[in-house]
Task: inverse folding
């Protein structure tokens, strides 16, 4: 098992032996010789960002409040979503549940058919396997990294105090007007191109799990503050072409999607690197990172 | 070794053999029929229905329809699963035909030579010759014209029935539709009072049986014939892979959702040529429901869910009272959500607080 072996590898031989060793592991676990996922560091900046969740004021649904969010320090995030091959290595290691993916997908396609629980298990395993600290991004971090690919909430949804149906009808119409056609089959990583920060495949046909819980918030009457809020961490926020909220155990976008409109095509994830361990530092130095 | 086409046609010949070929006995009647006025109808694809009068103007007439059979691959879900479909007029279900009691339906059925199979049509509304199936079997490159009298009112299924094992296969490949025979003086409620609809929608529910490969993924085939053996194996399991309205998952949602408004009365005709179903309008009702489909029986009132027997068509009349997005489902919810049998109505209008209101929005549970 990689975590155990990792601890046994003498530091002295690590620098040259490790890449070779990881490549051998890769062959056994059907991994490409891509030892540690490539990350890109996002510099501190600000965005105006619609908060995730559901908002009420005076007992009525409200547009998600937009707030300015500032990235304090650099954010190091995977350039690509976790690949199916990388995820398979975690499965081989006995640390992840097999993905619910039976279709023929390209070898270097992102891991799909994975739930929030699967993504968390992978992050835990990957942290041990690489000696670096990996985790899911928060919804806010995802938005900061996705930059212009971040879709946010639907605009133009009417909120008529006397007619709740206006909101249902206009949000239904907003989804229709996205005119998104189903695009079910995962493609090779990179197929959806880079965003302005050099990160790949945001808002393609794979929605990404975040660490942010679904929350229902009641705003104070003047809208300036939170009167109360209830977290439901059995449901997490996914980001992609549109925001989605799904139960932690759901791995198929179709069965966990919205009541109306097109549900996510596929569920996957990418990870944030919090703290690079010594193995990671060496690999980064050797340009394997 | 006989070709697939010969084999299929051979099976169909059996059906013809058992059908008694009726001759029109009374020449007087024949002459009378010849003298009737004629009306030519252009059919439209479901969920829409060709323009028609709810109350007949004048006496019985001959209503002429033409349907062209199209064999073609169609995509039936968002994953791109392909069905080698057989269709009346290119749609699943075939178009809804509307006539009045005592009218004569004169259908010209065309099987273009671009098709590969023999087809026919069995009208549950017709009397004799296997519902017309015995008189309408045509090969690719042929056409046939059948006339039958609409003696009974109601909604009735029609479907392809070219004999033996071909029958269920053609039906679950899409060859089914419905005809509505209205009473000459229109629809009546349980008290015998006239009722009418502002809009009519036709929903034809299909059960599909798509074979899977060893990994569980749906297979596709060059032609319907190539998929025949595998498909029959799935059919015999009696577990459909798809249960859908109007030919595919989501065909009546999004841009294609049915539209209505508060105060408008809609008649929803629902057919299922093969398998039982149980329509339900979430958040609405069936004001008057002809569950068995036949207008000579008084409609049931205020139904929550109604039962459409496999091989029949029923209808529900409902006046929308509240705006919103309604889901119209087969209330086997597994079939509705997992297999596809969900449609949507977008209903505009003013909200009625008296009928429903959220007294208090969700909030943290009160603690004392």
Result:
């Amino acid at each position: 098992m990689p975590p155990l072996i990792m601890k046994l590898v003498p530091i002295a031989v690590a620098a040259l032996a490790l890449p070779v060793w990881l490549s051998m592991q890769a062959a056994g676990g059907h991994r490409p010789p891509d030892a540690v996922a490539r990350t890109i560091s996002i510099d501190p900046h600000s965005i105006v960002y619609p908060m995730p969740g559901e908002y009420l004021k005076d007992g009525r649904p409200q547009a998600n409040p937009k707030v300015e969010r500032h990235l304090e320090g650099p954010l190091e995030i995977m350039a690509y979503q976790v690949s199916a091959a990388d995820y398979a290595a975690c499965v081989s290691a006995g640390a992840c549940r097999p993905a619910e993916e039976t279709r023929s997908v390209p070898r270097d396609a992102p891991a799909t058919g994975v739930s929030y629980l699967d993504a968390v298990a992978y992050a835990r395993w990957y942290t041990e396997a690489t000696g670096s600290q990996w985790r899911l991004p928060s919804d806010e971090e995802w938005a900061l990294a996705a930059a212009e690919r971040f879709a946010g909430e639907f605009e133009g949804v009417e909120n008529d105090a006397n007619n709740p149906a206006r909101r249902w009808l206009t949000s239904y119409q907003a989804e229709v007007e996205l005119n998104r056609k189903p695009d079910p089959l995962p493609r090779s990583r990179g197929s959806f191109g880079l965003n302005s920060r050099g990160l790949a495949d945001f808002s393609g046909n794979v929605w990404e799990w975040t660490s942010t819980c679904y929350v229902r918030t009641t705003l104070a009457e003047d809208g300036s503050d939170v009167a109360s809020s209830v977290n439901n961490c059995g449901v997490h926020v996914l980001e992609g072409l549109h925001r989605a909220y799904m139960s932690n155990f759901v791995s198929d976008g179709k069965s966990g999607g919205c009541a109306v409109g097109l549900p996510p095509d596929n569920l996957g994830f990418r990870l944030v690197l919090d703290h690079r361990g010594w193995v990671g530092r060496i690999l980064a130095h050797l340009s394997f990172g | 070794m006989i070709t697939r086409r010969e084999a299929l046609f051979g099976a169909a010949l059996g059906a013809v053999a058992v059908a008694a070929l009726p001759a029109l006995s009374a020449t007087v009647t024949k002459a009378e029929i010849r003298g009737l006025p004629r009306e030519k109808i252009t059919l439209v694809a479901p969920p829409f229905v060709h323009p028609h009068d709810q109350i007949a103007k004048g006496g019985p007439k001959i209503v002429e329809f033409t349907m062209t059979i199209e064999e073609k691959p169609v995509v039936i879900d968002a994953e791109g699963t392909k069905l080698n479909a057989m269709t009346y007029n290119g749609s699943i279900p075939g178009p809804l035909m509307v006539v009045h009691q005592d009218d004569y339906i004169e259908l010209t059925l065309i099987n273009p030579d671009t098709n590969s199979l023999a087809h026919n049509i069995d009208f549950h509304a017709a009397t004799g010759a296997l519902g017309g199936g015995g008189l309408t079997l045509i090969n690719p490159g042929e056409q046939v014209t059948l006339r039958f009298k609409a003696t009974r009112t109601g909604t009735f299924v029609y479907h392809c029935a070219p004999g033996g094992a071909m029958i269920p296969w053609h039906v679950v490949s899409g060859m089914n539709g419905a005809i509505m025979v209205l009473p000459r003086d229109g629809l009546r409620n349980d008290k015998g009072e006239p009722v009418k609809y502002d809009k009519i929608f036709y929903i034809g529910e299909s059960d599909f049986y798509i074979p899977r490969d060893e990994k569980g993924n749906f297979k596709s085939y060059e032609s319907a014939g190539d998929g025949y053996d595998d498909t029959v194996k799935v059919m015999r399991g009696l577990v459909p892979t798809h249960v859908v309205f109007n030919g595919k998952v989501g065909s009546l949602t999004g841009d294609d959702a049915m539209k209505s408004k508060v105060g408008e009365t809609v008649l929803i005709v629902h057919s299922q040529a093969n398998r039982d179903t149980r329509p339900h309008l979430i958040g609405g009702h069936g004001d008057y429901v002809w569950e068995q489909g036949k207008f000579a029986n008084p409609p049931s009132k205020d139904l929550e869910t109604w039962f459409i027997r496999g091989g029949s068509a029923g209808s529900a009349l409902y006046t929308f009272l509240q705006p919103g997005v309604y889901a119209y489902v087969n209330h086997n919810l597994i079939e509705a959500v997992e297999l596809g049998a969900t449609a949507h109505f977008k209903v505009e209008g003013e909200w009625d607080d008296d009928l429903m209101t959220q007294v208090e929005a969700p909030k943290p549970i009160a603690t004392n």
Summary: The two ends of chain A are 21 Å apart (CA to CA). Chain A touches chain B at residues 56, 59-60, 102-104, 162-166, 168-169, 172-173, 175-176, 182, 184-185, 216, 218, 228-230, 254-255, 259-262, 265 (CB under 8 Å). Residues 1-33, 256-260 of chain A have pLDDT under 50 and may be disordered. Helices of chain A lie at 2-8, 11-28, 84-92, 116-130, 139-146, 164-178, 278-285.
